[in-house]
Design brief:
Number of domains: 1
CATH class: Alpha Beta
Radius of gyration: 16 Å
Distance between the termini: 32 Å
CATH architecture: Alpha-Beta Complex
CATH topology: Sulfite Oxidase, Chain A, domain 2
Number of strands: 11
Structural class: mainly beta
Order of helices and strands: HEEEHEEHEEHEEEEH
Largest sheet: 6 strands, mixed
CATH superfamily: Oxidoreductase, molybdopterin-binding domain
Number of helices: 5
Helix content: 10-25%
Length: about 190
């Protein structure tokens, strides 16, 4: 596959990893940090930082496309596969969507089939190093087939829902689906 085949329409390639954030970078406290799976699950699950880090790791090389038109190709991510996370809960049959909840009150929504794609992971490393705080340390949701706002920083949990509900950027005019190949940047 050529570089041109990896870049969605309207995007340019950069080697940089720009920081785009709404609000302050949260402070991480290992002793109080937790990750929660809630909503339409048989039993909610809450993991401490050490319990989360004890889960099997997964590595992935994936492109990263920002709605502001830059793409960074071949990022090396390390974290926990969404499939490993889903082994921890049993979804109720009516669960069709997920909401990612993050520090700072940030949220983003995804259909279950998008969340459960084989290349989705909860990352704690980028290019062989721990994530930088401004890029989401200690945990970032990585959804390579969607614009980067769906790859939510400072992830603290996933809530499973029967109906779709817009997240932070979706409530502020960003497209609900965020497919970079269809240039689904904005909802208008």
């Amino acid at each position: 596959m050529t570089q041109r085949d990896k870049v969605p329409p309207g995007q340019f390639v950069t080697d940089r990893f720009p920081v785009l954030t709404y609000g302050a970078t949260p402070k991480f406290d290992q002793d109080s940090w937790s990750f929660r799976l809630s909503g339409l699950v048989e039993e909610p699950v809450e993991l401490s930082y050490s319990s989360f880090m004890a889960l099997p790791s997964f590595t992935l090389t994936a492109d990263f496309h920002c709605v502001t038109q830059w793409s960074r190709l071949d990022n090396a991510w390390e974290g926990v596969s969404i499939h490993e996370i889903m082994k921890l809960v049993k979804l109720k049959p009516e669960a069709r969507f997920a909401m990612a909840h993050c520090d700072g009150g940030y949220t983003t929504n995804l259909p279950i089939d998008v969340l459960l794609d084989d290349d989705v992971l909860l990352a704690y490393k980028h290019d062989g190093k721990p994530l930088e705080p401004e890029h989401g340390y200690p945990l970032r949701l990585i959804v390579p087939k969607r614009y980067a706002w769906k790859s939510a920083k400072w992830l603290r949990g996933l809530e499973f829902m029967p109906e779709d509900r817009p997240g932070f950027w979706e409530m502020h005019g960003y497209h609900n689906d965020a497919d970079p190949w269809a240039e689904e940047r904005f909802s208008y």
